[in-house]
Specification:
The chain is of the alpha+beta class. The protein contains seven helices and ten strands. A hairpin with a 6-residue loop joins strand 2 and strand 3. Belongs to the phospholipase D family. MitoPLD/Zucchini subfamily. GO terms for molecular function: RNA endonuclease activity producing 5'-phosphomonoesters, hydrolytic mechanism. This is Mitochondrial cardiolipin hydrolase.
């Protein structure tokens, strides 16, 4: 009798495990999205400027695509940016904070308090910002979306390129941005952000 109960328990365990695995694969397949690989070019004198549902201002098609991706996080966004001054991009980040998206920001120390810097608006919203006082520049310009939590509804992305988040870069320069869900690239940028996040210090600790 004991052995029969034990056998039944083992069968029940493996049946549950198999069913759980089947359900997991079903939902992974359901939520699996196509790979994202897009290049966004910013050029001085771009035509086709229009009012967008993502912004109250007149913006270029390139800016609209960037705002589209910045409005997409479900769980987290990590920003590693040499300088941030553009109001529209900052507003989008603040909207994410209100939605409950977890946000971390790394910024260059010399640019943290530059004219028009977004730092004070970010800190006022309770968004953690870190820097490193150094003679070397923190010259990275990348952003990670939904890489911090394992959620099958999310597509982890990295946004990389020459673009600083400034109005001059967005509207007055020739710049490039690439958006990709390629796992190896996303993982490498995530490792770099996590490394810097541990090495750099909260601004309030250094001020």
């Amino acid at each position: 009798m004991f052995f029969n109960n034990k056998a039944q328990a083992v069968i029940a365990f493996f049946s549950l495990a198999f069913a759980s695995h089947f359900v997991y694969k079903h939902f992974r397949k359901k939520y699996k999205k196509a790979a994202i690989n897009e290049v966004i070019m910013f050029s001085y004198g771009t035509t086709g400027v229009k009012r967008s549902k993502l912004s109250r201002c007149l913006i270029s098609p390139s800016m609209e695509r960037l705002l589209y991706y910045l409005s997409s996080p479900r769980r987290s966004i990590d920003i590693c940016m040499y300088v941030m001054t553009n109001v529209e991009l900052t507003n989008e980040i603040l909207k994410l904070a209100i939605r409950g998206v977890r946000i971390r920001v790394i910024i260059d120390a010399d640019m943290a308090f530059s004219n028009g810097s977004s730092l004070k608006r970010l800190e006022k919203q309770g968004i953690p910002v870190r820097w490193m006082k150094s003679t070397n520049l923190m010259h990275h310009k990348f952003c990670l979306i939904d890489t911090e939590f394992d959620d099958i509804r999310c597509t982890p992305l990295v946004i990389i390129g020459s673009l600083n988040w400034t109005t001059q870069a967005l509207n007055g320069n020739w710049e490039n941005v690439a958006v990709t869900s390629q796992e190896t690239l996303v993982e490498q940028y995530k490792n770099e952000f996590d490394r810097l996040w541990l090495e750099f210090k909260p601004i309030v600790d250094i001020a």
